[in-house]
């Protein structure tokens, strides 16, 4: 019976969406939100509003920068594994295995505490122009998140590169395209469009990994919520608001990737 | 001489003796942390599996209300960072239980980090497991389930004899991935101060200042756990797929 009901609801589509039980659910949700607004404490919000905006900006900045850099690293990693000679394929595979086999938090702390405690012992690093940057926390956060994204995405790109039909590449060769042109015009675009649905999921996972940078003193939106909790001893309100902010950012990401996917012609051959 | 100057600090902090098992070394602490991590991962994965089976059942065969509630659960849990969920469930969970105990006139209890960690990670794993198992059940040829119904099997027996065994080969790649995520997500409990491997490593590093050595050692432990799991998973997959045509490696 339930299968029949499901088939019915999908066939009639949008008009059936507002079923009686959904109205009840929406009413409960509205009641919960209203009671949260009226019965919980939100008087701390104006004091931390600017800091929260800065935190959201940092979270998005880290997400965009690490995803971009990570994707640029993932292309050679995937290509080396899919088509490279063994002396390129093997290190790429080892890199992906090691990064994917250890927790991101550990990698982050290894870079920040490990390298961070190693660097000051070398006078030539301490006297270099890069030292003011290396003393801050965000470079370590960016490097750790970039490497993590590159390793996961490199594995996806390996499958995507290998999945492009041979006939396409052979045809490009028969047209007399140079290897670089073949890669740029045929291989890469098809691999990227194949990887795009997975890319969306990986980017959401990357967003969910960003609060880890708060553990090495980068002030992102998660760190702002923790600070509110420490300053005011209010536990639930900042965390609930934080969860809502992440839900919204995830929703925007999923929507944006869906738009992007719709722009790419669907027929892959 | 200059090259020795360059390497000296590295050699100083890469002191291998610190990793020995006996007390001057911190090896025993790391291994205890690893044992805690594995314990939590096993518990969370088991709880997640139970939630996943119930959730998939609810999503596929439940009433419209149950289906919508399951959809909300999986969407929210998969969209909010684990770290936030851990804090939220950790504080809210212990607080709610103690308030409930208080209203019934019992003294408040102190919930151990182990139980709290297993419950929190289990709820997170359950959301992902629900999707994996739902997809696997949908991949079962419809005729098998119809045949079971035609034999007059009650739902419980059908689940035990037909649905679960038949979906296993489809579910195992996803579930294996979830197990690997579970082992790595235990590291997040370090943030709430639970003594699993990452937290033990940080304590050892903070005491001896040899952060690099300890974090690399912990990384090797995690990596060994992953590689060992991969071997076991390969065996389980071969067993679950017995009698089925072999998959071609090339994929699409």
Describe the structure in your own words.
- With 269 residues, chain A is mainly α.
- Chain A has two domains: 1-39; 44-263, Orthogonal Bundle (MetI-like fold), CATH 1.10.3720.
- Chain A is 80% helix and 0% strand.
- Chain A contains twelve helices and no strands.
- In chain A, helix 3 packs across helix 8 (138-163), helix 3 runs antiparallel to helix 11 (221-232) and helix 4 (86-101) packs across helix 8.
- Chain A starts with a helix and ends in a 6-residue tail after the last helix.
- Chain B is mainly alpha-helical and 252 residues long.
- Chain B has a single domain (29-240), classed as MetI-like (MetI-like fold).
- Chain B is 77% helix and 0% strand.
- Chain B contains nine helices and no strands.
- Chain B has helices spanning 2-13, 27-61, 64-79, 82-103, 113-139, 142-150, 155-185, 197-208, 211-240.
- In chain B, helix 2 packs antiparallel against helix 3 and helix 6 (142-150) runs antiparallel to helix 7 (155-185).
- The termini of chain B are far apart.
**What is the CATH superfamily of chain B?**
MetI-like
Strand fraction band of chain A? under 5%
Tally the helices of chain A: 12
Major sheet of chain B = none
Helix content of chain B: over 70%
Helix content of chain A: over 70%
Mean pLDDT of chain A: 86
Reported by name, the CATH topology of the largest domain in chain A is MetI-like fold
Structural class of chain A comes to: mainly alpha
Low-confidence stretches of chain B: none
The N- and C-terminal alpha carbons of chain A lie at a distance of: 39 Å
Give the name of the CATH superfamily of the largest domain in chain A.
MetI-like
Note the run of SSEs of chain A as H and E: HHHHHHHHHHHH
What's the level 1 CATH class of the largest domain in chain A? Mainly Alpha
CATH architecture of chain B, please? Orthogonal Bundle
- Structural domain tally of chain B: 1
